[in-house]
Design a protein that fits this description.
- The chain is mainly alpha-helical.
- It folds into 2 domains: 93 residues, Rna Polymerase Sigma Factor, Chain: A (Orthogonal Bundle), CATH 1.10.1740.10; 103 residues, Winged helix-like DNA-binding domain superfamily/Winged helix DNA-binding domain (Arc Repressor Mutant, subunit A), CATH 1.10.10.10.
- The protein is 72% helix and 0% strand.
- It has 9 helices and no strands.
- Helix 3 packs across helix 4 and helix 6 packs antiparallel against helix 9.
- The chain is elongated.
């Protein structure tokens, strides 16, 4: 069965792209309105700074509109914008931390990451995940992920991109996306296990 909603979405994006290539200023405004919320969320989670995220979004659209004629359409317009935004956000992070050694350089995508703390989060009641303190802890942990793992986790798990779309956005293979997503999940499990264990114990004592 044809997914009518997806087809309509594709048609709308193709029309918007054509208008952008024709220099339609109202199309530029529509593009910003349509995609800026998602690009801002991505930039904020990668940079951890609201002002920087706003700069990244602005830079993304400026670069995209300048290069719109060179966009070949092999991926969707949204995926292309995600790629520009992710690159801009990561460049900002690197400029802010020029003397830090990237953790990505310490292991390859083939390395196995085995968590030492194996607390099972499913033991916690759902309300614990809804608490503002827990959400803040999750966001902190995501920001601490090595950048290659962080950008994959944000695009796949938080923005809901498919494996293929994430691969296109990051110019890597789907297998690399799967490997990095798996490592990101293990890394977060390791990082957050002590926190959730403490919450579980506190709940029992309460």
């Amino acid at each position: 069965m044809v997914n009518r909603a997806a087809t309509d979405e594709d048609d709308a994006e193709r029309l918007l792209l054509q208008r952008l290539r024709n220099g339609d200023k109202s199309a530029c405004a529509q593009c910003v309105e349509r995609y800026s919320p998602a690009l801002y969320r991505l930039a904020l989670r990668l940079t951890g700074d609201a002002a920087a995220a706003e700069d990244v979004v602005q830079e993304t659209f400026l670069n995209a509109f300048k290069a719109i004629d060179s966009f070949e359409g092999r991926s969707s317009l949204s995926t292309w914008l995600y790629r520009i935004a992710a690159n801009a956000a990561l460049m900002h992070v690197r400029r802010q931390q020029p003397l830090m050694v990237s953790l990505d350089d310490m292991f390859s995508d083939d390395d196995k990451l085995v968590p030492q703390a194996l607390f099972d989060w499913c033991c916690l009641p759902e309300r614990d995940f809804e608490a503002s303190e827990t959400r803040a802890e999750l966001e902190r942990a995501i920001r601490e992920l090595p950048e290659k793992l962080r950008v994959v986790f944000v695009l796949r798990e938080l923005e809901g991109l498919s494996t293929d779309a994430t691969a296109e956005a990051l110019a890597v293979s789907p297998d690399v996306v799967k490997t990095r997503l798996h490592r990101a999940r293990l890394w977060l499990r390791e990082r957050l296990s002590p926190y959730f264990m403490d919450r579980a114990l506190a709940g029992k004592e309460g």
